[in-house]
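Contributing new records

If you add data, match the layout below exactly. Sequence lines come first and carry their own label; structure lines follow with theirs. Keep one chain per record. Anything else will be rejected by the validation script.
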Amino acid sequence: MKIFLDTLDIAMISKYAHMGIIHGVTTNPTLARRYGMESDVEMISKVHDALEDGEIHVEAFGSSREEILDNAERIGHACGDVNIVFKVPFSETGIDAAQMLLQKGNKTSLHLVYSVNQALLSAAIGSTYICPLAGRLDDVGHDALSNIHEIITAFKLNNETTQIMVSSIRHPQHVIRAYQGGASAVTIPVHVLSQMFHHPLTDHGFNLFRHDVDLLSPVGSRNINRNLIVQENDSLERVLSILASHRGGAVAVCRGSILAGIFTTGDLKRLIREKGEHFSLSDLVADYMTDNPVVIDITEMTGTAIEAIKKYDIEQLVVVDGSAVEGLLDAKDLI
């Protein structure tokens, strides 16, 4: 079953065309106005640039055979070798115009088809497509897909070459039933096509795989904060300024490039609680840091880092490269 995209969102057309899943695009004047296109020729040009070789179904509207034919000739002349299918509303006038377009070598799509009788007459002139509408018929209380399945069955029994494009799609179930019924094509709005990619179990499985891949990634690929490093002779005032500037929960305290300890916001709270006013912001951070903090090498796996955070019930992990301090990892960025 061919998939057509029922939109004039050029970015979406380009996206799905490059993905290789759409055969073409169906358009209408209402969509053209919605997307600010001034003429059908401009619309076709923009769609063609995004779609390249696929079919573009475009309205050749008119209240008489001559008007329909004139519009089709104007569009065809302006658009050169674009792969155009002319959409013609079903009626006696539409059938008359469509058979003339077919005689001139054009492709046609008779739309606003609702019954087997209308489908039969469209097939009688060899229209390239008919477009029975699903959603609009459902909206007035009919089982649209059962009606379309009757058309499909009749066409197969009689070896008709006219292709059946199910249109006015409201949800993925319409697409499924069209496919199961043997429709030749379906034209799908972007939001429905997007829904078709998803299934709860697929999404759940993907998230599990992504989680496992994350656990196997090296610590060096994570968001290491390299700003949260101070020296042991830095003052508390400087350390608090760094913590505030970089929204950190701790700093690695170094002696040169070698780790000497860690000073956390928890250490600060304990300092205030225990010493009250009996300390100064000019005091050295080394006087109040925690010795022997938990460290992890930059080459270790993320899973190992998470295990350390859980085992020692800590919120920050010092990352080292050999003996040199690289920065801090925050637990909330890992778990």
